[in-house]
Backbone:
């Protein structure tokens, strides 16, 4: 399958999943997770109709950006962002998905306020409460949103999560359901500097299920680019 055929197939699956969930496909953004794919493959995906790309590694993103990989598209940062690398991402990525601590929020605020910009972010939730993963616990979200009210230069646009790896796709449902509930509950309160409009959930193996639970930003890598080679 070519990238273009894959993009068409993923879009078709999104439309189908949306219809089954009585949702409009137009409210669901397809983000291509383009890690380990070079600039020419990214351009191929862009030509096939992808308008949002997400990268995980700062250095890789900077290198491909310098080659014009994302020209005309939107760029998101979806990886774990270390505070000492935030400077290179703030202002370059339109949306930073994995904001996982108050300290990182403060760093982003300081950097963007100094540049007179507002950086949009998603708060990452460690929905499986896994020690190996970063993210806020569900109960920490209200206080994180309250801290954000006091910070210039940063705006929370929603939530993201990477649930535990599940052998059976159906096992992921309770995690997605919990995320949907958190999205609704935390979005229902009014916080300054926050507009809860993005729920970033779902990857190649489970984006159709995520759409059932209200995801409106699915992150698909393998389903678009094919398997990644980790031999580099
Ligand atoms: C790589 C990655 C994806 C895409 O994963 P696939 O299973 O290849 O679709 C989605 N989200 C994040 C945060 C990723 O790092």
Residues:
């Amino acid at each position: 399958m070519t990238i273009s055929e894959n993009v068409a197939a993923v879009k078709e699956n999104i439309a189908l999943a949306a219809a089954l969930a009585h949702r409009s496909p137009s409210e669901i953004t397809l983000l291509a997770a383009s890690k380990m794919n070079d600039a020419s493959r990214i351009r191929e995906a862009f030509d096939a109709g992808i308008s949002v790309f997400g990268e995980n590694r700062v250095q890789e993103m900077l290198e491909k950006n310098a080659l014009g990989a994302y020209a005309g598209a939107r760029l998101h940062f979806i990886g774990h962002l270390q505070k000492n690398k935030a400077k290179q991402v703030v202002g370059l990525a339109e949306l930073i998905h994995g904001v996982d601590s108050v300290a990182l929020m403060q760093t982003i605020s300081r950097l963007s306020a100094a540049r007179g910009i507002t950086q949009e972010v998603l708060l990452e939730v460690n929905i499986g409460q896994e020690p190996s993963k970063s993210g806020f616990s569900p109960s920490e979200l209200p206080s994180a949103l309250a801290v954000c009210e006091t910070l210039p230069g940063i705006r929370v646009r929603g939530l993201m999560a990477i649930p535990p790896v599940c052998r059976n796709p159906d096992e992921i449902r309770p995690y997605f359901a919990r995320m949907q509930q958190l999205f609704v509950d935390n979005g229902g309160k009014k916080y300054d500097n926050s507009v809860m409009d993005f729920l970033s959930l779902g990857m190649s193996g489970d984006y159709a299920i995520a759409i059932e639970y209200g995801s409106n930003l699915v992150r698909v890598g393998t389903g678009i680019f094919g398997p990644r080679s980790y031999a580099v």
